[in-house]
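Annual report, structural modelling task.

Input specification for the zinc ion complex:
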Amino acid sequence: MGKPHRQGIGQTSFQLPPGVSFEKQLLPYGHAYIFRHQKLGELGRLVLHARSDGQTHVTCEVVGDSDDPMTAQRAALFKPIGNDLTQRMEYALTGKATPPGLWDEPPPRPSEPREVVKSKLIPCERCGANVALLIFAPPATDLGRFEDYARKMYPQIAWLDLPTYIIGPPQGDEPLPVRPAEVWKVWPKREPVRLLRPDEFNPMMERLAKTHCG
Ligand SMILES: [Zn+2]
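The model returned the following structure:
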């Protein structure tokens, strides 16, 4: 990780904490700056909403389910950045200083396309009850991107309350059936990411399916 350098958004220049980066996203009603952290994944975004009266409204949003303990961690990192930038941008746009506290519900606006996440439930061989949840995360090439999937799927993961594994893309040049992938068990407890081949991972699932009613 290099030393933090000053970056500009619009007419403002600021310093980001180490590990935090941003990218611009175009929206049907304006644009946004999406902030992410190397290990925590997406933190939140600053939305510039072009309104019909010609004004631009700046809002700041933290991503994640409020029940997810990771949301508080991401918010702690993002809120100071977001608050600071929101005020600077409001000032740049309107010439007026605005008080902090723009963390209320974002204004109603058109819905955005939602990403479809592929997942699979593993059933018990005998009673058919679900014994595990697999979540496929082909873009998960680093910890931050694994976190993105844990965050997006949090409501389902918590509601199903099954052993849950997030599976990254296959790695290396071996034939596909033996190519390993990073597997992250995130529920009921977060465990370290492991690099597993299909012939290591699949028997774990078969064991779960066999022992439920065993
Ligand atoms: Zn069973």
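The chain has two domains: 9-94, 119-211.
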